[in-house]
Amino acid sequence: MSVTNQNDLSTIITPSLLDSIFATKTPYEPHKPFDNDLAIRYTYNGIPNEKENLKIGYPVLKALSELGFSEARNLDLLAFLPTPEDHSFPARAFALIYILDQLPRKWFEGKDERYTNVFFDILAIKLSHQLHALPEHLRPDSQRRWVEEMGYPVEVWAMTRFWFMAPFAHSENVEDQAPQSAMCEEVRVVLERRSEPQGVLVDPYRKTREALDGNVYAFANAVMKGPPPMKEGMRIEEHVFWFLMLFGAHPAIIKRFGRYPYRNRAVGRETTSEEEEYLEKTQHLFETDAETARLIKEDVVAGDWSPLGSDPRETKVE
């Protein structure tokens, strides 16, 4: 099917597709006690059949890419969701954000990496701004909607909120870092206060948070070190706090460079000498290989977009 407008996309971005994506990424039952052991297993070992079940999101990305960037960036993405007052709004908003922000990062290699950062990230942050601008009681990432309205344990809200925060963290606009920082702090405070009856649990990274503000290497160092190891009796809050620390390490990079240096090759940008020093010290983590960079640069100079999936090195998801 050839996609030429928003009506065509509505036959692809359907409620059932969004519900399926949500069910895959949020395999917890509402109105039941939180299963901490299950959450730990899913977090460290993966959700069963996740990769296979997420494939239904690829046609959405393909269709958007065929629409073209100029047309896609002008879409009213909220039109693919129910009204904010609808009970299904938080789940479907979560799913659409996840498709735009996370699926390209899971799948795209070769020249398709360009789509991740300067096509789908732009759509994801646009939708995120729309969602964030809603009144507090209607925002799909609010604790009230997930816990009181949808019936999920607060831990599920904390884990799913990561993906609402991610487009802000991935944005190279320094002003977008403030919303994700505020959202991080809200999750942190809620989990710390809630843990008191079970024994006070304080975010162990609180003591180092101020140091994150000026440490451009904190993010790469934390990723290379990895999350706290899985162990018997572990609480999911421990992993959530680590993830919050990763989010908190993003602003320093944007404040220093005005962009993510490891993204330069993937979007056809030149790297400054200061950025090259940063990349060397972070072992070129997340940086695109030189051959891919050359091909992307050719497209950028020519003003072209190679069709999504045309690079034989692309990760196959169909």
Give an overview of the whole structure.
This protein is mostly helical and 318 residues long. It has 19 helices and no strands. The chain is globular and about 55 Å long. The chain starts with 5 loop residues before the first helix and ends in a 16-residue tail after the last helix. The model has no long low-confidence stretch (mean pLDDT 93).
Structure annotation, total helices = 19
Mean pLDDT: 93
Taking the alpha carbons of the first and last residues, their distance comes to: 16 Å
Work out the number of β strands.
0
Task: List the main descriptive attributes of the protein structure presented here.
318 residues; mainly alpha; globular
Helix and strand layout, with pairings?
Blueprint lengths: L5 H5 L4 H11 L10 H10 L4 H5 L3 H10 L1 H4 L16 H13 L1 H5 L5 H20 L10 H7 L4 H17 L6 H18 L14 H4 L5 H8 L10 H13 L1 H8 L6 H4 L5 H9 L8 H13 L16
Helix pairs in contact: 2-7, 7-9, 7-11, 9-11, 11-12, 11-15, 12-15, 14-15
